Amino acid sequence: MIVSKQIHKPRLVLVVDDQEINRDALGIILEEDYSVIYASNGKEALDMIRENANDLSIVMLDLMMPVMNGFEVLEVMKGDANMKNIPVIVLTAEKNAELKALQMGAADFITKPFDVHEVILARVGRIIELSEGRRLISAAETDELTKLYSRNFFFEYANRLYTYHPELKLDAIVINIEQFHSINEVNGRKFGDEVLKLIGEEIKVFLFDSQGIACRFDSDRFGIYCVHHDDYTPLLEKLLKRVNGISEKVKIGLRMGVKPWREGIEPILMFDHASAACSMVRGDYQNPIMVYNDDMGARDHLNRMLLNDLHQAIEKKQLHIYYQPKYDIQCDPPRLCSAEALIRWNHPELGLILPATFIPLFEGNGLIGLIDDYVWHEAAEQVAKWKKKYGISFPVSVNVSRPDVFDLTFTEKLKRLINDNRLDYKDVKLEITESAYTDNAKYLIDVIESLRETGFEIEMDDFGSGYSSLNMISSMPIDVLKMDMKFIRNIEKSETDRRLVNLILDIAKYLNVTVVAEGVETEGQMRLLRNAGCDMVQGFYFSRPLPAEDFEKLIEREITEERK
Ligand code: C2E
Ligand code: MG
Ligand code: MG
After folding, report:
1. Fewest CB within a 10 Å sphere: which of 11, 37, 386, 561?
2. Residue-level pLDDT at 7
3. Which CATH number fits domain 327-563: 3.40.50.10490, 3.40.50.300, 3.40.630.30, 3.20.20.450?
4. Ligand 2 centroid to residue 437 C-alpha, Å
5. What is the DSSP string of 184-220?
6. Looking at residue 385, what is its pLDDT?
7. Within the chain, which residue ranges are assigned CATH 3.40.50.2300?
């Protein structure tokens, strides 16, 4: 053995290879800096590792060997408390074997025939440094529940693949569960854990056929770094099928963001982009997969800003409630009878922001509850004020989003709202968007029925915008149906749309449900609707949504009209 140049005791390296020529080649490179011992098969290697467990800095392990191969050695090492933290660099001539070895816990790999000396020394040095720096890279760094890699290990590993294996051209994928907090809330944590576990399992099945690695980033976010696929729909479908197999009663949605490989983009940025794409899916249930494009960077930046600023916006009263009137058009002249509360965010830097920009974002992350609570309180207070000031009630409808319904305190909260403001249940109406009805119909119907028994009126919002069929409304406990704008838009030009509107009105009449047409902008549309028997209209034709003080002018005008 060549005496080491180092003054301190040299670190101990074990080289395991069945070919003498390889052992010699590595020895020449390593003995300059390390104290090297040798084994010629897996069995011999394990004996030496056991014996030197406390002193060994690294094992250089050939994979293809007689008696006991490298994979078997890795397996034994990773299952042994004394050996599992000793880093292993595998020596291989075969691409596929490398990934498998890494998945089994190897820290790095060196390809045969051996690279340039400096490269080998640098890589050995780095791995030793990493392991001594307590940044132990071991297969044990997995997430308890899903058995996928932990975030830190995943990125460590991904960086390594990126640096040493650029030819793999890996895509980044982020998967997120829709409304995971509601799923947990309604079905219990155990159920939620089961969902996470199954996703982990299915991702592993996927990685069986496609080279790559995966992790759980945090509660319900998963990452996959894998060789390029043109289309990840089959993976998403398999995941959906698996998680929706748990229970027929609970419908679970997933969204997926994809950042396809691009030269020179590091894993961390690849995953930032995939996350941005994933968050764009929010609110778009028809297209649960989004592939990153450069506009999303800007949108992602905006989302982060909004997330950051929400609490402050509530504290500083930057959220304003506008009121858009609903008119009864069967009266002549049409009569103002109620309003819808619509939120606007007056952001100090961005100016006035409409709900479409931020509601879907907050619906996806559990913060929507904060906003809706705020709106409900403001609206209820406003109704109480008007009741006192004018002596009559102008009921206000508030929007209820999907996650609100799954909040177990939902009904109680609303009851308290009414009682605290000394209102009648009829003074605050609840608009629930049509798409919520298709999610978890049984649960929703139960909640709605109990609200109606209490005395609340329920309006089905955006009817016709989603999947629900006409016959579905017959089984839904609702008081009011709000016909989506898309039916109204072309009503003057399109015979088909007119017929559709008439059909909806007929069914609603039969079911004894009031119909509000949304998005009415012209007198022509209003007349057609009136003649067809539509009860109420909301739209720019009568008024845009207004701040409370402007809405008061409408109330005052209405009162003067009535006195005439
Ligand atoms: P929505 O509940 O269906 O509300 C009606 C939307 O149609 C409002 O948009 C309103 O300004 C718009 N609109 C009314 N008349 C016309 C018209 O004649 N023409 C056109 N083109 N548009 C008209 P806005 O205020 O931007 O709100 C969009 C959506 O955001 C709402 O749809 C609702 O789903 C949601 N939203 C608004 N405020 C809240 C809130 O406080 N909480 C929750 N969860 N969602 C809210
Ligand atoms: Mg609404
Ligand atoms: Mg609507």
Report:
1. 561
2. 39
3. 3.20.20.450
4. 14
5. HHHH-HHHHHHHHHHHHHHHHHHHHHS-EEEEEEETT
6. 97
7. 12-131
